[in-house]
Predict the structure.
Amino acid sequence: MMPEVGRKLPRKDGVAKITGREPYSHDIYLPHMLYAAVYRSPLAHARIQHVDTSGAEALGAVCLTPFDVPDFIYNERIVSIPTKTYKDRRVLPTIARHVGEAIVGVAAETEELAVRALQQIRIDFEPLPAVLSTAEALRSESPKLYDRIWLGDRPIDMANNIAVERHITEGDPDDGFRGADFIVERRYTTPRKYHGQMETKAAVCQPLPNGGINVWATVQSIHNVRQVLGQIYDIPLSKINVMKLALGGSFGSSIQMNSIIPICVGMALKTGRPVKLVSPREDDFYDHAHYQTEMVLTVGVKNDGTFSAAKMDVVADIGAHHIQADALLGVMAGWLASLYKWHNFQFDGKAVYTNKVPTCALQGFGNHMVNFAVEQHLDIIAEMLGRDPVDLRLQNYIGEGDIFWGQGPSIKSVIQSCGVEEILREGSVRIGWNRREKPVDKQGRYRRGLGVARGFHTSGTGGPKPGDVIDYSSATIKVNEDGTVDILTPVVDHGGGTGEAIVKIVADILHVPYHMVELSDVDTRTTGYDVATHATRGVYCGGGAAAHVAEKVHRQILETGARILQVPTDDVTLAHNEDYGTGTHVFTKSNPDRQLTLAEIAKTAQINSWGTIAATGSYRQQSAPPCFMGHFVEVEVDTETGEVRIVRAVLLSDAGTVVNPDLLEGQLMGSFARGVGFALQEHSETLPSGALAHGGWLTDYRMSTSCDVPPSDALEVYYAHTYEPTGPFGAKGVAEASLSSVWSAVANAIYNAVGVRMYDLPITPEALLEALNAPHVLNV
Amino acid sequence: MTSGETPVTLTVNHKTYRLFINSSALLLNVLRDQLNLMGTKYGCGIGECGACSVLIDGELTLACMTLAGTAVGHEITTVEEVGESPVGRVITEKFLNHAAVQCGFCTPGMLVAASSLLQERAIPSEQEIREHLRGNLCRCTGYAALVKAIQDAARELHPDSERRPHAG
Ligand code: FES
Ligand code: FES
């Protein structure tokens, strides 16, 4: 059998998704169901003194107020170990801390009635002063968002708005800077961004007669949602079942349990009826965003092009809740430390509460922010040294044999596969790097420039020892009586093809063709634990666990086959032969004519009452290998309007063995489109009132349409030829890596076109025009 | 039937349904909540994303911007029917083969939009495809695979047109 890993094969859920038959959380309808809507705070900061629900109730609605929900403080993300989990969230708060914070849930017979009832909710607010920027939040006289938060079970009394600080040092940075020939320091900023997943967050909860609940919701981890709900509502986990459904995009916005899920559950428990809650798009905009950051990067450089030290100061605006800022600062340090050989290194990060939309991961979790600073810095340094930017990167990158700790200081791995050199060399050839001219040599209204940036992401958060982040996955695999195979995996597929990758991995281990292996509908009851589809761990960790279990099934097939053939187990092997039955068969090494198909083996085991050939298990990967990425971009700047057009781009990835080549291309293309949107247009800006400037509208937020992205023939993809020895069939992750260096490459190309360095994102036409018209004191 | 609801007859996918609807009921909600046609998706509710694309008398229409009452007497076609049509089947196959579907939430709307385009234009140019899909947002794919799949579908549906020399 030709290996299924690496083949282009139609995705399992493809036809169902295309033709509208694949159920998402939006599509769950239950008999006797109520529809819910959420009243959200119009104020950025206010104490809720009284909630008058009588008008809503007069319409027949049932309301859930902050005074009805358990007085329980939690963190909706339980990916980190409990002692590293900060908690500040309640199902519904008694103090609203951002415009759009959910305050009251309303359930009624129809959606329309729920919305009408919502309009009858009256709330007495005591307005409190709000802080809407980190600068304001950090002032000593500024109002505080919290008096007390919790770290694990330990209360923390808050002296200010700093949610968490992290200081991480390696080597002796002071000494490193003293040894530098020159020092380059710049300040970079990245704005708040919105995930823009097409499916708004939704939940359906069915209360059960035994006090339990069934939940269908938008999630990246069915098991973590189950556990958080169990904590909040004090329900044994055996009575909570969370179903795995298709996910309509997420980009990190559902790593944590979405805020509407426990509201929906609270209403279902209160009414005793199934409740459905679908976020309107506007509510979704007010529910999650990605961190705004300011980064000051200082690098000590030697004249030979090596570095003697690096230091990064980060202030992250996390908004009104601490979902995962502690982890964010850890990974930002890790991304910085793992990009280049700085030799000495210091990271000082502050995560600051503000009265803004709470923030969470977005494809890369701090990775692309750090990349924006470091990859522009590299170009600045290259120009100062008179060196080629590709060359300088090749001189200093961290590669095979070096330590990678992209997921923070507690998750370190030795790099065993690295495509950086291939990516940089191949990208240079494909884009025509040797035709790159200096900005000063360019004239005219339209100026073109070439830019490069390289990035990476981790593949999961595994390692030989447990770290601050939980990482393992589970699988159950069984052979059916006709020789087909069922896989039960808790791993949620964002759409990138994790499910298909797992099928291919299992298919190849069991020598069963792809079309005879299917993914079962599963839930928290029928699967072992999986932490979440985050950290680009789906294929490497989820697929790794499936591979581990498939090996057990492989052994069972051999044992059962040997038992039927009455030969020792070590005298049989499993193989695929098109000429024989369904293809998969066990044959006797000593007498190859004696063979059985997998169907015959499974059926015989059934008839003889030997049992089903099946295995289940959990597995933790012992490493977290980086998948490397490179972007070479050509832009054209209209110096009269400030508009930037992508002329060409080469997207190069190092995913180890490529499991789904077509889906990988799709991920690279999609990430590039998002990255260009983030680079040039998207900004989820907060007004002085605390409201969003774009009002929660997709058009005004400026999501890219089919006409905004570069034409198809402008983009080219390339996969480096690497093999990750610790991954299933040599594979590692790629998803988040594919966004990591897009905007850095765009910014570097803009500089190469017009000689203006853009330190702040997004690089809108207005911003670029302003920079072009500013007196050019210093271009580099 | 509750107060304010009136009886109407809607023709959806060649079937006739007698329903009670509110005068403010949106076609999107009637299709999903009353007719269990879940392929028409909610992405924004205000005409910005195209996830709710349907055909009314063959015209590409946003179900979230259409009062169900105004569709009375017209032929409504949803993705469930488009997917079964000859053009829809070819596009489905091409979406699949070009890996133009990732999370899939936008995809039914894309299928409806693409089929309406290929009904109008035998061999649309890339620019025409992009213009036609402008109202259908996709956050996952970056549109490249969708565009290629639609070009491929057009070529398969009209093998002769492709060989016709370009005008001018
Ligand atoms: S739901 Fe109709 S256009 Fe978005
Ligand atoms: S495939 Fe996810 S939005 Fe288009």
The two ends of chain B are 61 Å apart (CA to CA). Chain B touches chain A through 62 residues (CB under 8 Å). Residues 85-157 of chain B form a domain with the DNA polymerase; domain 1 fold (CATH 1.10.150.120). Chain B has two domains: 5-78, 85-157.
